[in-house]
Amino acid sequence: MKVVSFFAVIVVLFFSNISIAADDDDMVLIPGGKFLFGEDKKKIELGDFYIDKYEVTNAQYKKFRSEHTFPAGKEDFPVVEISYFDAEKYCKDAGKRIPKPEEWEKAARGADGRIYPWGDKFDSKRINSIEAAKDAPVKVGSFERGKSPYGVYDMVGNVSEWTDAWDSKKQYRITRGGSYFDGADLNKTTSTLMSIPDDIHEYIGFRCAKSK
Fold first, then answer.
1. pTM of the model
2. 91 is a domain residue
3. Considering 17, 91, 110, 142, which has the largest number of Cβ atoms within 10 A of its Cβ?
4. Considering its fold, how many domains does the chain have in total?
5. Which of 2-6, 64-68, 123-127 has the lowest mean pLDDT?
6. Residue 5 has pLDDT above 90, yes or no
7. CA-CA distance, 11 to 51, in Å (whole number)?
8. Is residue 206 situated within a structural domain?
9. Contacts of 97 (CB under 8 A, 6+ apart)
10. Among the ranges given (12-21, 64-73, 129-138), the one the predictor scored with the smallest mean pLDDT
11. Can you give the CATH number for the domain in which 48 is found?
């Protein structure tokens, strides 16, 4: 019986490691180094870090909070109407954290200061923005040609995303990336919006990051 129990433990640990690896596979390594930050393209330097390849989905969030509900067929859509604090707790429980705005921006625009993840010219076919006229979030990863230089999806459009930063008066949390009802001007890699951290909105979601 002791032998059987020993092998049972090994099997559980083996499959637990597979699960952890699968979660890590959904993250992208953003290499450290200098990059151009903000509209003024200030040169700053970051270390290596990981960021989620996709926005956190309804299906992922339901594993964290069983009472979370969503329409049938929208398992792979970004979870929305989540406060900053709930997003922060999700990331923490997953062994991750909310990305800092500098990390978010580098993952979105690369090191060369591009205006959109794909370059400097707006293209409505690469993004779920108001120009796409979908009027709602879409399945994560739907815009293959809109991914960032590092292969991160939906960094502009779809839903705006919480970042780990306050406004100057420390009343609002900063969100990045614009959303499905914002146009080209608010869906740039440098675009910044604000929200009270315990508010929930149908156009705000999140993704997680972690240090290497």
1. 0.88
2. yes
3. 91
4. 1
5. 2-6
6. no
7. 29
8. yes
9. 88, 91, 164, 208, 209, 210
10. 12-21
11. 3.90.1580.10
